[in-house]
Amino acid sequence: MILKQAEDFKNESDYLFNTLHRLSNADFEKKTLFKNWSINTIIRHLHVWNYAAILSLSKLDEWEIFSNNLKNSLNEGKSLNEFEREYTKNIENRKLLTEWKVLYEELSEKFKFQDPKKRVKWVGPDMSVISSISARHMETWAHGQAIFDELGLIRKNEDRILNIVIIGKNTFKWSFTVNNLDIPEEIPYLKLISPSGKLWEFHNQSKLNYIEGLAEEFCQVVTQVRNIQDVNLKVHGNISKEWMSIAQCFAGKAQKPPEIGTRKIRLDRENVKKY
Fold it and tell me: Which of 10, 30, 70, 102 could share a disulfide with 108, CB 3.0–4.6 Å?
């Protein structure tokens, strides 16, 4: 049985690649609104962690070496970006793009026929195969948003973002835990509209705490590519409002959502269009 999430990851990566392969080498150094990372920096980041996911699946000795090298680099005071540049030997532009494509295709193939419940290593707690490949999809989608914003392109989402919605809802407790906050007893009811117009509902219906609106905007908030005030989600109840103000569906230390109005499509670009 083919793991659909592996195909979704590849399709999301292909969608981003088909945008980037049109760019000139100079375009890859354009700075995005995500931490001032360039397009090169974002693709290099995705590339390195796609490689790490392959190691975690089938090359545990090499995974341990990778993990230790990362820890040593950070302990030496180097940034994550510096580690990733060194790890990829500073490849960039179209060469980086090509190597990223080859590797994400390999990653998809390696995960496609795995037992979804199999446990794999990661920098945080171990996780299942299905969680690992879904996380790679989420990272590609979220970081891709910064690129689409920079290029002035309105991304056309598809229903494969359901994987990201699921990660978002499943990390409700994590969002509070990582911020050292008490976990509410009630999980808000979600009533979301998919890109194709389907209704996606999660958790028990509630008249007190619920969130409704477009699934892609829910994904934007939980991945912290948009502030809750910059989307049109309807957020009802104190628990829902607190969650959306701190939502974080990715691992690591607590991160603050972007300030209002700081993450958006660059409407000054001449080529603004739906892609």
Answer: 10
